[in-house]
Amino acid sequence: MKALTDKIIETLEDRHRHFIGSLATKETIAESEGYRQGLLTAIETIKTLEASAEFDEVARVVMKHLANPEKYHPHHRVVLDSTHAELLEGKQSTGQVLDYITD
Predict the structure, then answer these.
(1) Helix, strand or coil, per DSSP, at residue 76
(2) Which residues contact 73 (CB under 8 A, 6 or more apart)?
(3) So what's the pLDDT on residue 34?
(4) Distance between CA 11 and CA 18 in Å, rounded?
(5) What is the mean pLDDT of the chain?
(6) Where in the sequence is the domain holding 14, given as residue range(s)?
(7) For residue 70, is it within any domain?
(8) Does residue 8 belong to any structural domain of this protein?
């Protein structure tokens, strides 16, 4: 499965390469140089933003996704590293216990 930004970039690149418009007009939107240049600009902007994204920005994408009540509830958590992502669901919790923490 691809990352969301990869899907967006791939879709825009596909629209840039292929026919967009109607046969009745004889000139497709995809043949319009302004339209094609705009797509290229959008693609490069997304690539630049993704490459320079800060941790907070990337984490917020996951947080926003987890906030979808049709898929998840507040007891879902995600653990990520560079090669693995895990979705966890809490079944029982004691809450925060500080009794054993030394100062």
Answers:
(1) strand
(2) none
(3) 76
(4) 11
(5) 83
(6) 4-74
(7) yes
(8) yes
Residue 88's alpha-carbon distances to 61, 80, 101, in angstroms, are 17, 11, 26
Higher pLDDT, 84 or 39: 84
CA distances from 30 to 20, 35, 43 (A): 5, 7, 15
How many domains is the chain built from?
1
Q: Is residue 92 part of a domain?
A: no
pLDDT digits (tens, 9 = 90+) for 18-66: 655 555 555 565 567 777 788 888 888 888 888 888 888 888 889 989 9
Residue 25 lies in a domain: yes
98: left (phi over 0), alpha (psi -120 to 50) or beta: alpha
- Write down the pTM of the prediction: 0.61
